[in-house]
Design a protein that fits this description.
It is built from 15 helices and 17 strands. The protein is an alpha/beta fold. The protein folds into 2 domains: 227 residues, Aspartate Aminotransferase, domain 2 (3-Layer(aba) Sandwich), CATH 3.40.640; 98 residues, Alpha-Beta Complex (Aspartate Aminotransferase, domain 1), CATH 3.90.1150. The strands form 5 sheets. A 7-stranded mixed sheet has the order 2-10-9-6-5-3-4, sandwiched between helices. Strands 13-14-17-16 form a 4-stranded antiparallel sheet. The chain has a two-stranded parallel sheet with strand order 1-15. A hairpin with a 2-residue loop joins β11 and β12. α2 runs parallel beside α8. The chain binds ligand T4K.
């Protein structure tokens, strides 16, 4: 990084943080409860392979989401791979490029081609009107991503999928605890996939889960995540190892017990950021639909350089120098990462909204590791930078 101003305070600005403030700091539930579970697990000497914690976790998730089947997995990426395979997906699948790279990699990994469709700049989700433009005879599925936990219009996508006889899956990695028209996400399309990675507001260290109301699909997914075993020594499918461990399920169960607290904290933080960042020209926050259930786990800020007088990249650079480790999301967009950039060198021409957002969006720290005083200070720093944009932008 060149020419970074490392000390706004010396220019009359707020003080820098003495310790780094990260995006993605894990939420930790009740430690004693977690340790007690781990101790029981060790006493039982049952550490993996569909153990009692995994079964309890699956049941509690299914109950919470109101869905028939929940299959816990080692992470959401493997879960996406298995779901696509179990659903018989081949050829081409329509996905957004404005997502984490795992959405596309889960397909490309098994030689299924992700085809990137553009997003709606207001929802940051796949634009249903764009999807149909990309359907070809090779298309077998759509994977919608509920970006930031905002539903990727599941009812509209269900109609499009039905009309074209396509499978429909959702990457719900961001969307645990979120609803659409009052119904929890998890039961839409053929299947949905959640992530419980450490950086997600509800974590199982690493982990994921597939939810579905389709009995036959659920059975295939269960076999495939366990090497294809359909019985003690009977293998019916090609399979892989997607199993969740007992220690991960112990953490998942413990996180689930603190879910309301995590969401309430995220909501308070969201409100504090809204207040702190109000009325800064060119700086706007992505807003959540408060009439639906949301987990508020991402504080998403768009920087309009023309109005703010400073680019998103420069702002992130300056924030880093103050120990505020804001992140560019989803930069540069999956279509500009390999192998997709080489496979589809002109994809960007069809993805104007994706490209624009990937150059304007940043994520700020939230979760239980951040307190209202931190947030007030982060907002002061951003306000100071914006007020002095001309000088700082050029520095
Ligand atoms: N689909 C979507 C839409 C996703 O967002 C993701 C995952 C997936 C699918 C795949 O789910 P999984 O297979 O992971 O279950 C992170 C996560 O690794 C990834 O899970 C997540 N999305 C993605 C958005 O973020 P990185 O490469 O940005 O992680 P990293 O190491 O840079 O850490 C991010 C921040 O979190 C840093 O500021 C450090 C902090 N952190 C991280 C960890 C792991 C901590 O403070 N403590 C920790 O333990 O990918």
């Amino acid at each position: 990084m060149k020419n970074v101003v490392t000390d706004l305070a010396s220019q009359g600005g707020p003080p820098a943080f003495t310790e780094k403030l990260h995006v993605g700091r894990p939420n930790i539930g009740d430690r004693e409860q977690l340790m007690a579970r781990i101790s029981d697990m060790l006493d039982r000497r049952w550490l993996s392979n569909n153990g009692p914690y995994v079964q309890e976790f699956e049941q509690k998730l299914a109950d919470y989401l109101g869905v028939k089947h929940c299959i816990a997995m080692c992470n959401a990426t493997i879960a996406l791979e298995i779901v696509a395979r179990a659903a018989g997906v081949t050829g081409e699948v329509i996905v957004p490029s404005f997502t984490f790279v795992a959405t596309a990699h889960a397909l490309q990994w098994q030689e299924i081609t992700p085809i990137f469709a553009d997003i709606d700049p207001n929802t940051h989700n796949l634009d249903p009107e764009q999807i149909e433009k990309f359907i070809t005879p090779r298309t077998t599925a759509i994977i919608g991503v509920h970006v930031w936990g905002t539903p990727c219009v599941p009812d509209v996508l269900e109609q499009i999928a039905a009309k074209h006889n396509l499978k429909l899956m959702f990457d719900a990695a961001h969307a645990f605890g979120c609803s659409h028209n009052g119904q929890m996400l998890g039961g839409f399309g053929d299947a949905e996939v959640f992530s419980f990675h450490a950086t997600k507001f509800m974590n199982s260290f690493e982990g994921g889960a597939v939810t579905t109301n389709d009995d036959a699909l659920a059975a295939r997914i269960r076999y495939m995540k366990n090497f294809g075993f359909a019985g003690y020594d009977q293998v019916d499918y090609v399979g892989t190892n997607g199993k969740m461990t007992e220690v991960a399920a112990a953490m998942g169960l413990t996180s689930l017990e603190s879910l309301d607290h995590f969401i309430a904290t995220n909501f308070e933080n969201y409100k504090a950021y809204q207040a702190g960042l109000a009325d800064i020209p060119g700086i706007s926050m992505f807003s959540y639909d408060e009439n639906e259930k949301r987990n508020y786990q991402y504080i998403v800020v768009e920087v309009d350089e023309a109005q703010a007088g400073i680019s998103r990249n420069r702002l992130v650079e300056l924030l880093h120098a103050e120990n505020i480790l804001a992140r560019r999301y989803f930069y540069p967009g999956v279509h500009r990462m390999e192998p997709y950039a080489s496979l589809f060198p002109h994809a960007g021409m069809l993805l104007p909204n994706t490209q624009k957002l990937s150059e304007q969006t940043m994520i700020l720290p939230t979760g239980t590791a951040v307190n209202p005083t931190d947030i007030a200070q982060v907002c002061q720093v951003i306000r100071f930078i914006a007020a002095n944009a001309a000088a700082l932008s050029a520095a």
